[in-house]
Amino acid sequence: MGPWRCLLLLPLLAPALRAQQQLMEYVERRLSLLEERISQWHDQSSRYSTELRDFKNQVLGMLEAAEKEREAMRTEVESTAVRVDRLEREVDYLETQNPAPPCVEVDETLMEKQVATAKQRKNEKYTKLTDCSDTIASVRAMKILKRFGSTSGLWTKDAAGNSEKIYVFDGTANDTVYVFPRMREFTLFSATRKAARIKLPYPWVGTGHLVYDGHLYYIRQQGSFQVIKFNLANKTVVDSSVFPAEEQIPVFGLSPFTYIEVAADEEGLWAIYATKEDEKNMCLAKLDPTSLDIEQMWDTPCPRENAEGAFVVCGALHVVYNTRLPSRSRVQCVFDVSGTLAPEDASLVYFPKRYGSHSSMKYSPRERQVYAWDDGYQLIYRMEMKKKMEV
């Protein structure tokens, strides 16, 4: 091919050469972008690897610290267990150093004399110790505190002192009393970790116990029934007395576990009980809080049947009734030992409808309210009072 023919082909090949050059430039640009992205991915991968390694080291450090704290806590728990064990041994030692509780030796002659004296004064007009002339008009308010313990039990404050302590008797037969320092601790905490424990020398029976002027008066059954006077300050038995009533039966028809209900009012200490001699109605006795002697006794017209609880207000026995299928509780019988309040003039107080049946109802004369235990719930009834002559 001659030179002149090559010159003729150049115009035809020029566009193809330019297209090929453009394609090569495009491929080079794409390769350059791909290389930049690969470089960025490599940098990011290196950074993520570094962060992952740092995070792993941090987690390992935290796990080591947690293991050290767990070991420290285990050591502290073991140390606490050792201290608790030492404290229990010290408490046991102190209990052995306390004087032994007095034995209950029944002097038959003295007991017969006390019963004869009480029977001579039986149903006599009562000489009041105070000028209290109030009676319950109605339940002003009800407050549900919490649910604690068994379906049956007792909770109360000191009926005579100024202490704010709460005393809890869980169940109808036990030997340990829970003591909370204030109402707040009893209300806020469901467990008993905020409570002190008092282990009694004898187990109690029923829910008729009472805290009065720094002493616990509780019922013990050992053949016959005994009233035990227990000093809460030094944890010792101060006195005890066999209750001088023959063939006792449960005082409340709906609470068969309670044979003696110890109550307090503005006049002092009382005992509510029942015997086979008059098994349909309740009996009432005035107690001497110092000696536990019975000062006077009364037969009341208040029946035991369908009774679930009772308390005394200004010398007047108020008996609360219900039905075996729990409904609304109400005071249906009032017996005033001074004779100033006729039964037909007394207010028949209704308690708000609640859960089941009261296993205990404790009147606080200094607060004018009733501490009740209802199917495991702890309730407070605030009472509206009136003068007896106004009712």
UniProtKB/TrEMBL annotation:
Subcellular location field: Secreted
PROSITE patterns on file: OLF
The entry's keywords: Coiled coil, Developmental protein, Disulfide bond, Glycoprotein, Secreted, Signal
Record carries keyword Cytoplasm: no
Residue ranges occupied by any Olfactomedin-like domain in the UniProt entry: 131-387
Signal peptide coordinates: 1-19
GO biological process, one term: signal transduction
Cysteine pairs bridged by disulfides in the record: C132-C314
Coiled-coil intervals, chain numbering: 17-97
Lineage top rank: taxon: Eukaryota
SMART domains reported for this sequence: OLF
GO cellular-component term (any): extracellular space
Pfam (any one): OLF
Family under the similarity heading: Belongs to the OLFML3 family.
Protein name in the entry: OLFL3 protein
Source species of the chain: Centropus unirufus
